[in-house]
Amino acid sequence: MSSEQDHLKDTDTEARFEFKKEQNAAVKSDKGLTEEVIRMISEDKDEPDWMLERRLRALEQYQNMPMPTDWPGMPDLSGLDVEEIVPYIRPDVDKREGVDDWTELPDEIKDTFDKLGIPEAEKNALSGVGAQYESEVVYQNMQEQWEEKGVIFMNMDRAVQEHPELVKEHFMTTCVPPSDNKFAALHGAVWSGGSFVYVPEGVTVEMPVQAYFRMNSEGMGQFEHTLIIAEEGSEVHYIEGCSAPKYGTHNLHSGGVEVFVGEDAHVQYSTVQNWSKNTYNLNTKRAIVESGGTMEWVSGSMGSKATMLYPCSILKGRGATDTHITIAFAGEGQDIDTGAKVYHNAPETSSTIESKSISKDGGRTNYRGLVHIADGAENSSTAVECDALMFDNESTSDTMPYMEIEESKVDVAHEATVGKIGDEDIFYLQSRGLDDDDAKKMIVAGFIEPITEELPIEYAVELNRLIELEMEGSLG
Amino acid sequence: MSTQVHANLTEEQVREISGNLDEPDWLLETRLEALEALEALDMPDVIKTPGREWTNLHELDFESLVDPLNAAEDKDQVGPDEVDVLPWAEAVQEHEDLIQEHFGSIVDPQENYLTALSTALFSTGTVVYVPEGVDAEDVTIRTEQNSRSLFNYTLVVAEESSSVTILERQSTGAEQDEQYYSGIVEVVAGENSNVQYGSLQNLSEEAYNFALKRGDADTYATIDWIEVNLGTQLTKSGVSTELNGDSAETQIVGAFYGHNDQHFDLDAKVWHRAEHTTADLVTRGVTDDIARSVYEGVQDVGQDAWDTSSYQRENTLMLSDESEADASPKLIINNHDTEASHSATVGQIDREDLLYMTSRGIDERSATNMLVQGFFVPVLEEIAVDELRDDLEELIATRLRQRD
């Protein structure tokens, strides 16, 4: 065991995610959700009227919508009181649109991202980085070579000012309207920060762009909005990382992600989220895919108290393709309710969903999915595969896929398996000289390999470390 | 609650039904309580996704469908001598203790609106009592509905180390525009017993049907269900087993064939509640024309269900472009010492298979028919009751002949 602990110390994984910072806010809203709070946020951002109007309409929709309560087996949201959440905190930085050099950040913020390893990753593997601290993007940089090709990567607040036509057309209109669900409406009212990515026709951004979201204050809500527009024939890989330290009160993360995949374009959206275990993570993520386009969702859901997240692709044009690869890990007191939704609305569309989950120490994972094949989406195909691994008898794992098939010329397959770690496998590894813990870790690493294969190496390593960290303790 | 049938239902009607059957007071009380509960109960759960209810039971007009005092049927209840196969009125006299012990113990009369309605109003039924150690084959319960509504109740009690095979059929005699058939089946499988319960529903295609069958399997007991649905315009059917004893087993084999505008909402559920229990759920169905199928399969493994094996597969074949097939196979796992899997597929007839057969000189229509019949083979193979298997094969062939 001691070698493992040393290893974890060396990799510094725990320290990287659990540290807290003194709060240092320039502007902080009141708790709760009122028109005054919304007007204050909008004014602080110096927003155009149309955006304020959208916010106020979303607020009205939020107030008129009931909480979702009739989902079978949904996570317990009773500990979430939106009225106690601080929806907006602007950290004390000089430049509102974010600096483009890490050294210009206030020390305590710079220190945070240093510990998270973001500047290091930027140097090595990324085309651009945005970093959000509380409600504001504090760092934003895009390598020049991409800027020259017309690629835009900036924070969402700035995009409202600088690209109003693009934002007006795409922001919470056709992809994720506030009326979609209660938390989308909430997001529409109080959203702040996030990323705006625009890739012109035919441009391939070869290295991933990354945004990192950090929630540092107690009892706050983070509501970043991500809007990705990939024009015809373009290609981009966007990575999102999230973390927050743990406090006694609950945090709320309710992001909104909208992706427009143009004809024959290719977008990959990867997330490794490791919110602290008092965070409610209730997101809406959706892509609209035109003909011949490809949308790939890759996600690792590790942290949070409760997650409800079902990234969705609407395959709108002929021959559009969707791939979902997800992994969920639920430890003690965690309820990770996540899955995938795909609407096949055109002929010859295809989707594959591969979902893996691990639960231990009383954690619960649930795969909740929906595949809808509309009348007329002929020659479409979908394959769904869910595998669950459970470590002990306090943990639970459910799968709830729904398949709505309105078209006969289709090929639909769903498969799910649940199993414990095979005694024979462990015995085999032990007979080769590994101890019990190492054998289990090796089996888990093999189990999640389809996910780690899809991630850039830095992320794959991080995911592996996080899982090792999660497994630590229970296996001793 | 949008559907309100109790506006024209009265306590007197329930008293009259109970009185005609010469029932003891406790049973009348159970019925009256169910009648009273109607007001507060909702329809059985159906699958819902945002913006969509897959089966809308609220649309049914129970006020015009239910005619409690005018039930008419033609019934056969036969079985070998060593088993009691009794019509309800007779069973109430002969086996009151047995009925009092088990009635409503597996399916709660107030589980939902339709079970309560059935409990308050059922006027016909069968009790099958298999004494300890008796092996009984060929119990047949045939019900022909000749009235607007018919409420049927079946109780099967298999004592320790007994075995029984029951074949139930529902059909329509005198047809009316719209009819409602409701049937509740409770099966008590004692230690080491073996109950096989086959059901062939072939009611009129104008009829609505609510069916709920549930078994409780004790240690080493086996309950096997065969659930065939061919008739009605709308069926809401649930078949389930609670594996409450160690090493209990269950199999649920389902087959359906929907054509015209038929709608089948079928669920198969198993609750693993004890150690070393095994379940196997297999359903295959066809949808043609504008028919629609909804399938929900649930494998629920409880915290104490160590060493569980649980398998489920569901396949739907769509023969027309206008038909719809929805499926939701669910796994609920609370014990890690479990091996479980489920799979579901929806597809059409394989074009290569069809090409292969037509290239061998078989005309396309015959080839299609053969492939549909072949599709049902994995289910037919699981049906151990010869008579039911043969009938199902014949009914599938008949339905295929009706295709344009």
TrEMBL record, chain A:
<dbReference type="InterPro" id="IPR010231">
    <property type="entry name" value="SUF_FeS_clus_asmbl_SufB"/>
</dbReference>
<dbReference type="InterPro" id="IPR000825">
    <property type="entry name" value="SUF_FeS_clus_asmbl_SufBD_core"/>
</dbReference>
<dbReference type="Pfam" id="PF01458">
    <property type="entry name" value="SUFBD_core"/>
</dbReference>
<dbReference type="Pfam" id="PF19295">
    <property type="entry name" value="SufBD_N"/>
</dbReference>
<dbReference type="InterPro" id="IPR037284">
    <property type="entry name" value="SUF_FeS_clus_asmbl_SufBD_sf"/>
</dbReference>
<dbReference type="InterPro" id="IPR045595">
    <property type="entry name" value="SufBD_N"/>
</dbReference>
<comment type="similarity">
    <text>Belongs to the iron-sulfur cluster assembly SufBD family.</text>
</comment>
<dbReference type="GO" id="GO:0016226">
    <property type="term" value="P:iron-sulfur cluster assembly"/>
</dbReference>
<feature type="domain" description="SUF system FeS cluster assembly SufBD N-terminal">
    <location>
        <begin position="138"/>
        <end position="210"/>
    </location>
</feature>
<feature type="domain" description="SUF system FeS cluster assembly SufBD core">
    <location>
        <begin position="213"/>
        <end position="447"/>
    </location>
</feature>
<protein>
    <submittedName>
        <fullName>Iron-regulated ABC transporter membrane component SufB</fullName>
    </submittedName>
</protein>
<dbReference type="InterPro" id="IPR055346">
    <property type="entry name" value="Fe-S_cluster_assembly_SufBD"/>
</dbReference>
TrEMBL record, chain B:
<protein>
    <submittedName>
        <fullName>Iron-regulated ABC transporter permease protein SufD</fullName>
    </submittedName>
</protein>
<dbReference type="Pfam" id="PF01458">
    <property type="entry name" value="SUFBD_core"/>
</dbReference>
<dbReference type="InterPro" id="IPR045595">
    <property type="entry name" value="SufBD_N"/>
</dbReference>
<feature type="domain" description="SUF system FeS cluster assembly SufBD core">
    <location>
        <begin position="144"/>
        <end position="375"/>
    </location>
</feature>
<dbReference type="GO" id="GO:0016226">
    <property type="term" value="P:iron-sulfur cluster assembly"/>
</dbReference>
<dbReference type="InterPro" id="IPR055346">
    <property type="entry name" value="Fe-S_cluster_assembly_SufBD"/>
</dbReference>
<dbReference type="Pfam" id="PF19295">
    <property type="entry name" value="SufBD_N"/>
</dbReference>
<feature type="domain" description="SUF system FeS cluster assembly SufBD N-terminal">
    <location>
        <begin position="73"/>
        <end position="137"/>
    </location>
</feature>
<dbReference type="InterPro" id="IPR037284">
    <property type="entry name" value="SUF_FeS_clus_asmbl_SufBD_sf"/>
</dbReference>
<dbReference type="InterPro" id="IPR011542">
    <property type="entry name" value="SUF_FeS_clus_asmbl_SufD"/>
</dbReference>
<comment type="similarity">
    <text>Belongs to the iron-sulfur cluster assembly SufBD family.</text>
</comment>
<dbReference type="InterPro" id="IPR000825">
    <property type="entry name" value="SUF_FeS_clus_asmbl_SufBD_core"/>
</dbReference>
